[in-house]
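Appendix C: a fully annotated inverse folding record. The material below is reproduced so that readers can follow the format used throughout the book. The structure is listed first as tokens, followed by the designed sequence.
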């Protein structure tokens, strides 16, 4: 188990974006949190410090918490490839997807508990009785009993879920239930995700949020957006060369490395193109392959200047997501089977992961550059990859699944696909947005407003304070 250092960020930073009453309310909550948590630490424990929505949110929320005077700290657990293979299996079945189809029996439980027993030992060197420990996702659930026994308040949070249970989700929950049941409170992103056996009195529904000031979401001067992408080798939009700086979480600056992005087949997106973009981890449930297939099918109907970019993290060396490389290979294969004229309009891009903020900055530039952003997930707990382009005022086409149904109001702040596997309706949604600039702009504008009203950190932090008050009551 290792600690991730977090710098404090003052809550006032949000003041530029929020009405004064909202900031005042947040300050009141911060004062309550300081009083309540005086002399106590709030620990967050998850499986990775980089990559994915959970790490993204922890970075932001913990920094604001520290800025508000709360001792919030972050620990990342250690696991073996077998452990992460197993937790990925649990992740998949909780979404109702078989994943690798492997078992979740006694042997797997022994592996799971063995790895977590080692982590618990290390965790208890940090945690004191009466601290709060927030455990995130299936990888950490097995820590609940040990943390509880040590006298700390333990909360388990699931960032995943599925609206309708299936036999598979039952299998996943049966695996986790003995641990989760012992938590003092349990958090889900949507009410519909809560399994029937969870004690309703312990349930909190807290949707995720984004931080508008990170390398991922902060403003980029419009002229730089194209230039950054060209510099990173992703597009050939302008002839401008330069040094492109991004600001890291710790306030230091980094330089975008030339040709940081890798494009499969090596052909960057041409300058005149309108880009349809999906940014995701290479996870089957994100359906990158389905976006590719749907776009390829629809190409004959699309204007010549429209191109697709499927963007995800470099898969080499990612330990907590063993499926990534496989899914990326599948997409490569699919693309290779297309005729040359389709291939040159479909781009698979990998972004470097060794500097998380450089990766984030490139995602930011891509989301700002895109004409339409897609999230055609088959299942989605809550998609930060939906909230992020919405915050950037982009029209989003996304599946009517899971948390996305809360994030987008269909026809008002984006377009929802009733059936993400129906490629015709995906094509029709592309036609609608690419053919109607005014509609696209209106949806984008409403999208930004929706994020401002529902998915920024102030709401999220205040919900946590309400929860902590209940724990210490
Ligand atoms: N992401 C990223 N670089 C990538 C791919 C994804 O930074 O190459 C980020 C993306 O911008 C978002 C997060 O990873 O912030 C994914 O969160 P989401 O909630 O959409 O899905 P999850 O990965 O947690 O299932």
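Designed amino acids, in order:
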């Amino acid at each position: 188990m290792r600690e991730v250092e977090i710098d404090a960020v003052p809550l006032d930073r949000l003041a530029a974006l929020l009405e004064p009453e909202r900031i005042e309310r947040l300050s009141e909550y911060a004062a309550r949190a300081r009083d309540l948590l005086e002399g106590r630490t709030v620990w967050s424990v998850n499986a990775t410090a980089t990559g994915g929505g959970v790490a993204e949110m922890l970075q932001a929320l913990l920094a604001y918490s520290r800025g508000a005077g709360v001792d919030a700290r972050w620990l990342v657990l250690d696991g073996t490839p077998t452990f992460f293979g197993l937790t990925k299996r649990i992740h998949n079945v909780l979404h109702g997807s078989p994943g690798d189809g492997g078992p979740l029996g006694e042997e797997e439980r022994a592996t799971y508990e063995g790895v977590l027993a080692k982590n618990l030992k290390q965790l208890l060197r940090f945690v004191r009785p009466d601290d709060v420990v927030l455990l995130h996702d299936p990888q950490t659930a097995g820590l609940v009993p040990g943390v509880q026994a040590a006298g700390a308040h333990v909360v388990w949070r699931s960032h995943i879920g599925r609206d309708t249970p299936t036999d598979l989700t039952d299998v996943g929950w049966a695996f986790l239930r003995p641990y989760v049941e012992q938590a003092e409170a349990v958090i889900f992103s949507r009410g519909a995700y809560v399994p029937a056996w969870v004690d309703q009195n312990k349930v909190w529904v807290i949707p995720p949020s984004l931080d508008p000031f990170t390398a991922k979401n902060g403003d980029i001067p419009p002229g730089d957006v194209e230039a950054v992408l060209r510099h990173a080798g992703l597009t050939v939009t302008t002839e401008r060369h330069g040094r492109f700086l991004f600001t890291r979480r710790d306030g230091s600056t980094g330089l975008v490395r030339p040709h940081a992005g890798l494009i499969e087949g090596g052909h960057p997106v041409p300058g005149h193109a309108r880009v349809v973009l999906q940014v995701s981890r290479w996870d089957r449930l994100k359906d990158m392959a389905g976006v590719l297939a749907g776009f390829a099918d629809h190409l004959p109907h699309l204007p010549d200047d429209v191109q697709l970019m499927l963007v995800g993290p470099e898969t080499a060396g990612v330990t907590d997501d063993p499926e990534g490389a496989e899914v990326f290979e599948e997409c490569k294969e699919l693309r290779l089977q297309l005729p040359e004229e389709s291939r040159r309009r479909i781009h698979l891009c990998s972004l470097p992961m060794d500097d998380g903020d450089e990766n984030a900055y490139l995602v930011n530039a891509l989301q700002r550059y895109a004409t339409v952003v897609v999230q055609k997930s088959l299942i989605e707990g809550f998609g930060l990859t939906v909230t992020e382009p919405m915050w950037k005022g982009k029209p989003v086409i996304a599946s009517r699944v899971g948390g996305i149904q809360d994030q987008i109001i269909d026809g008002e702040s984006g377009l929802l696909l009733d059936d993400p596997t129906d490629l015709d309706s995906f094509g029709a949604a592309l036609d609608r947005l690419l053919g109607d600039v005014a509609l696209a702009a209106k949806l984008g504008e409403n999208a930004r407003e929706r994020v401002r009203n529902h998915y920024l950190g102030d709401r999220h932090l205040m919900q946590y304070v309400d929860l902590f008050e209940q724990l210490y009551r």
